[in-house]
Design brief:
The complex is a heterotrimer.
Chain A (H helix, E strand, L loop, with lengths): L3 H18 L6 E6 L7 H17 L2 E6 L4 H13 L2 E6 L4 H13 L3 E5 L11 E5 L1 H19 L5 E7 L5 H20 L2 E8 L5 H14 L6 E4 L2 H13 L14 H8 L6 E3 L2 H16 L10 E4 L4 E7 L2 E3 L5 H5 L6 H4 L10 H6 L7
Parallel strand pairs in A: 1-2, 1-3, 3-4, 4-5, 5-11, 6-7, 6-8
Antiparallel strand pairs in A: 9-12, 10-11
Helix pairs in contact in A: 1-3, 2-10, 3-4, 5-6, 7-8
Chain B lengths: L2 H6 L1 H5 L5 H13 L6 H17 L6 H26 L7 H16 L7 H25 L4 H20 L4 E3 L3 H8 L4 H28 L7 H24 L5 H19 L1 H11 L1 H6 L4 H27 L1 E3 L7 H11 L12 H20 L3 H29 L3
Antiparallel strand pairs in B: 1-2
Chain C lengths: L4 E10 L2 E11 L4 E5 L6 H8 L7 E6 L2 E3 L4 H7 L1 E4 L11 H5 L14 H14 L17 H14 L4 E5 L7 H16 L3 E5 L3 H7 L2 E6 L2 E7 L5 H10 L11
Parallel strand pairs in C: 3-8, 3-9, 6-7, 7-8
Antiparallel strand pairs in C: 1-2, 1-4, 4-5, 9-10
The chains are: A alpha/beta, B mainly alpha, C alpha/beta.
Chain lengths: ~375, ~400, ~250
């Protein structure tokens, strides 16, 4: 009941909007975004970059968001097909509903591009555009190894692992990545695994309790932690600060403002920067090519197996951000600015060149 | 109590003094009739403690006890407000995201460089919560809508507001030391003792003055032995809590805050006209209306309390996480806060329950979460167990209710 | 004796239904006036008018010799008119004291309810009415018998220094012994000098306590008797076949 009602409400709203928007006369590209809660990127970044790319190319498009509800997303796909979509850019909510949407589209002769999240059930999408998520995980694993070495923590290093949501396939890929780096260390006995837990829905409040209890169970003796994104890293830092313990090496992902701030303040070791703009532009180029019936094989950089088929893929390379390369990466790209990072107590940790580039009152 | 008196005037006879033995017998009688009060919770807590302690030696440690207080603070605060809504026989599904609207607003106001001082930001955040409650309550009464639907709309809309407010930043770190201190301040040992002993003395004094007042008016009083017994019990409990927390980081400020809120809201619910009206409206709305009570106004006030307490709870949660993010107010906050009040024994159908049920229920939920976290159980197992605990609580409640109907006591 | 309440030619219409037509009615202090009539005769409409719930469309209401307007339950309560409803307006989850004081609680400093004083006053009132079967005034009323609940509803009316108490079917759901208690209570109210209006279907009860009997039929007053000077047969006849001044549906 509690779950069904919002669904019904959203669905009826959706219907109103789609009817109001009128059916498109020629082929269009439909972008199906998953939610606004698991990450701010979908609404804040992806929507904007897609709109810019499609408008520049002069193609028809629609962008909708399923707000975390897989049933709604399936209806959105049906609507898009009815409205004459030729290409669907899909960010699935889970692989089951993703496979259902792909099957629907295939029946209607519509091409599906898995965007950022791979659908591992069923035959799989026609194309896949994403960061190499296992590479993200490997960067995190390597980042933690480097941070532990730099901190000079003696063996055996006691390490806790906070994974992403158990329902998110990307979380599994990240884990594959960092496990490939840290498992050999656990096996050799150089590192000791304290605990390994998934955080439902990437919920930071729950991550906080989970990590506090790991600390309690370990008597406060955890030397380093893998955290699958910056939010979870923030929960680790908060738990340590709340218990009056020193900060430990911890990884992150997404290059959020908070993540960069913690890196500057020495509360987090690294984050992984995935240029959302590059990812969106790659997907948009592929979608526009498919819509116009052009040959897109030149865009494809490799294949990824979804468990059934090899999916032609465009895989982008993530970048590891540490205290040493903030300026050259996220700042240089315009993804983040020193103004938003160097506020309050964090201004003290900002490099002098950064403060020079800012307006005087901003750094107060 | 003499036999003739009893037969002459049973009413006045029964109003005369009870002995301690009779008082205890009357209590046991009430328990048998289904008026079980906090008994199942205490038994449940003992069982939880035994299970987790035998599985992990770290469960009953000072460190984990202090962690437990911090972990339960947010949902307990929200659940205090939920109790009032449930007493009225209403529901508020918006509390999770209302808590987030308040915490995100405060985090944004406090964000440097244009930081607004905490003593402005916090009242603004809580005031915003109260206003949201006023809005919900007014819509519910003005259009005569079920609170379920209106607050469901609130759930969606305030979630949207949170996302809009926090925008592209994703996460906002809270730097204000006062706000961080809400959930992260531990009282020095002596202060803990002074507050603890002071609290027991206050309780003893209030019991004594009630006792004196009733006796001076010739009304029946609780047996002296029972009054002393209750004071001693509280004293032992307080000494244990202060002693144990002092072995670790000390008594958490927010723990004291939970007790202060408990006392204030219990006073409001049980000792003021407003509280009496809340129970009356929840018990028999028509009777309350005929008694000249403005039931609509009571309803609006109650939604203001629930949203205001949700806002306060949101601030505590944010203080603990030292940041707010797009997930704020989501996850298990809504269900846990309502479940806390229900597990604690507040009826979903209105008219019956106590403010303290929020504290006891939250203690159960947080203990289960805490213990399973220590054991490192997967999130699937945690969900199943928490669901079963909730189910057990409502089944116990339903069974008690059936006994009550049988024995004629509701 | 001057009547405490006097209704002069009151009428009430609900849409097409003429519920009351120019009814005259009065009740004196210390008197029990029973209002009888078949279902739909207009008894409930009459008392709801007096209680201020559905104000009369036309006619005069004179209370204590002065013309008054009853537009809300508050107006009625301000005059000292109390209605004890058939469905008992008690909150089951509250105790006896809380119910007797509902809406009129006494408070002290810091909005604190003055429980001791309220309890004392409640016990005094119940004792003065010889309500003796309660185990404790701190019991929730849900646990009380129908007669006890009725007694509390009546005692509540008395405690507020009411001058006119209207009882709507007070014995409808009660057993023999409990009916006895309630009828005694009604008599004691009149002895205390209150004006009492009793609505009942049970003529046996009515003849036991009423001083006067007013018969309504199809919204009109068809008869009025002094209880001692009439018989049940006569009253039954008036209820079922009383002569109507105006035939409903016919234009005047």
């Amino acid at each position: 009941m509690l779950k069904a009602l919002p669904r019904i409400l959203i669905f009826s709203l959706m219907l109103v909007f789609t009817v109001a928007a009128n059916a498109q006369s020629e082929g269009l590209i439909a972008v199906l975004l998953p939610d606004s809660a698991s990450s701010a990127r979908w609404e804040a970044d992806d929507r904007r970059f897609f709109a810019q790319a499609f408008e520049a190319a002069g193609v028809n498009y629609s962008i909708v968001n399923a707000e975390g509800d897989a049933t709604v997303q399936i209806s959105q796909a049906e609507q898009a097909i009815t409205n004459g979509a030729k290409v669907i850019l899909l960010v699935n909510l889970d692989s089951g509903s993703g496979a259902a949407i792909i099957a629907l589209a295939r029946e209607a002769g519509v091409a599906v591009i898995d965007y950022d999240r791979l659908t591992i059930e069923g035959e799989g999408a026609d194309y896949y555009v994403s960061f190499d998520n296992e590479a993200v995980g490997r960067l995190q694993g390597e980042g933690l190894v480097a941070a532990v070495e730099a901190a000079g923590i003696p063996s055996p290093v006691r390490v806790a692992v906070l994974n992403g949501s158990p329902t998110d396939n990307n979380a599994t890929l990240f884990k594959n990545g960092y496990d490939s780096v840290i498992n050999p260390l656990f096996e050799s006995g150089e590192w000791v695994e304290v605990d390994d837990q998934s955080v439902p829905g990437w919920d930071n409040q729950q991550a906080l309790v989970i990590f506090e209890q790991m600390l309690t169970a370990a008597g406060g003796e955890i030397d380093a932690a893998i955290a699958a994104n910056d939010g979870l890293a923030g929960a680790v830092a908060a738990a340590l600060a709340n218990q009056g313990l020193p900060y430990i090496p911890v990884t992150g992902q997404d290059a959020t403002v908070a993540g960069i701030q913690r890196i500057l303040a020495g509360q987090q070791s690294m984050t992984v920067y995935k240029a959302i703009k590059a990812e969106a532009e790659a997907a948009a180029a592929l979608a526009i090519g498919l819509l116009r019936g052009e040959d897109v094989s030149g865009l494809v950089t490799g294949v990824v197996n979804n468990g059934t088929n090899d999916i032609p893929s465009v895989l982008l390379v993530p970048v590891s951000v540490t205290i040493d390369n903030i300026a050259e990466t996220v700042i240089a790209d315009g993804f983040r600015t020193w103004e938003e990072i160097c506020v309050g107590e964090f201004a003290a940790f900002c490099p002098e060149e950064a403060l020079m580039t800012m307006t005087p009152e901003a750094g107060s | 109590m003499s036999a003739e008196l009893k037969s002459e005037n049973a009413l006045l006879a029964s109003q005369s003094q009870q002995s301690a033995g009779e008082y205890i017998r009357a209590y046991l009688q009430r328990v048998r009739q289904g008026d079980i009060g906090a008994l199942p919770i205490i038994i449940g807590l003992v069982i939880i403690a035994i299970i987790f302690q035998s599985a992990n030696q770290n469960f009953l440690t000072p460190r984990n006890f202090v962690s437990l207080i911090l972990q339960m603070a947010g949902i307990t605060t929200i659940a205090y407000g939920v109790v009032f809504v449930l007493l009225l026989g209403e529901i508020d599904l918006s509390i999770g995201y209302v808590s987030a609207v308040a915490s995100v607003t405060i985090a944004l106001l406090l964000r440097p460089p244009a930081a607004i001082p905490w003593f402005v930001a916090i009242p603004l955040g809580i005031g915003l919560g109260v206003l949201i409650g006023l809005l919900h309550g007014s819509i519910i009464t003005l259009f005569q809508l079920p609170s379920f639907v209106v607050t469901l709309a609130g759930l969606l809309a305030w979630n949207g507001v949170v996302l809009i407010l926090i925008g592209g930043a994703g996460t906002v770190i809270i730097q204000d030391q006062v706000v961080l201190g809400i959930a992260n301040t531990f009282l020095p040992q002596q202060v803990g003792w002074i507050l603890g002993i002071g609290g027991v003395l206050l309780f003893a004094f209030s019991q004594y003055s009630t006792f004196q007042r009733r006796r001076s008016q010739g009304l029946p009083t609780k047996p002296v032995a029972i009054v002393i017994g209750q004071i001693v019990f509280l004293a032992v409990l307080v000494v244990a809590v202060v002693y144990i927390t002092n072995l670790d980081r000390g008594l958490p400020l927010i723990g004291v805050g939970l007790i202060v809120m408990l006392v204030i809201w219990t006073y409001v619910a049980e000792r003021t006209r407003f509280g009496r009206y809340v129970y009356a409206v929840g018990g028999n709305k028509e009777a309350a209306r005929r008694a000249g009570i403005n039931t609509e106004r009571i309803r609006i006030y109650v939604f203001m309390i629930s949203s205001g307490m949700a806002a306060l709870g949101g601030i505590i949660l944010a203080s603990r996480l030292r940041s707010v993010d797009t997930n704020a107010g989501g996850g298990s906050i809504l269900l846990n806060s309502i479940a806390a009040a229900v597990i604690g024994g507040t009826s979903l159908f209105g008219g019956s329950g106590k403010v303290s049920s929020a504290l006891l229920g939250a203690l159960i939920i947080a203990s289960v979460d805490n213990g399973m976290g220590l054991l490192g159980l997967s999130s699937g197992v945690k969900f199943v167990v928490t669901g079963l605990v909730l189910l057990a609580a409502v089944v116990v409640d339903a069974l008690a209710r059936r006994n009550q109907t049988k024995s004629g006591v509701r | 004796m001057q009547p405490l309440l006097e209704l002069k030619g009151v009428s009430k219409r609900f849409g097409a239904v003429q519920a009351l037509t120019r009814v005259n009615f009065d009740v004196c202090p210390g008197e029990v006036n029973a209002l009888v009539g078949d279902n739909g005769a207009g008894k409930s409409t009459l008392i709801k008018g007096v209680a201020g719930i559905y104000p009369f469309d036309e006619g005069e209401v004179i209370f204590d010799g002065r013309k008054v307007h009853l537009h809300s339950p508050r107006d009625a309560a301000a005059l000292g008119i109390e209605v004890v409803y058939q469905d008992l307006a008690l909150a089951n989850n509250l105790d006896v004291v809380a119910n007797m004081f509902l809406g009129r609680e006494w408070t002290g400093r810091f909005f604190r309810l003055d429980e001791a004083a309220m309890e004392q006053a409640a016990v005094e009132t119940l004792t003065s009415l010889s309500v003796t079967t309660l185990r404790s005034v701190r019991m929730a009323v849900a646990g009380l018998s129908g007669g006890q609940r009725q007694a509390i509803a009546v005692a509540k009316a008395v405690m507020w220094n009411s001058r006119l108490v209207i009882l709507d079917e007070p014995t409808a759901a009660l057993g023999v012994a409990q009916t006895r208690q309630v009828l005694d209570l009604v008599r004691r109210l009149a002895e205390k000098g209150l004006a009492v209006v009793l609505i009942s279907h049970n003529l046996h009860d009515i003849f036991e306590v009423a001083d006067r009997i007013t018969v309504l039929r199809l919204g009109q007053k068809v008869a009025e008797y002094v209880a001692k000077e009439t018989t049940q047969q006569e009253v039954v006849h008036a209820i079922t076949a009383g002569k109507l001044e105006r035939v409903p549906g016919m234009s005047e």
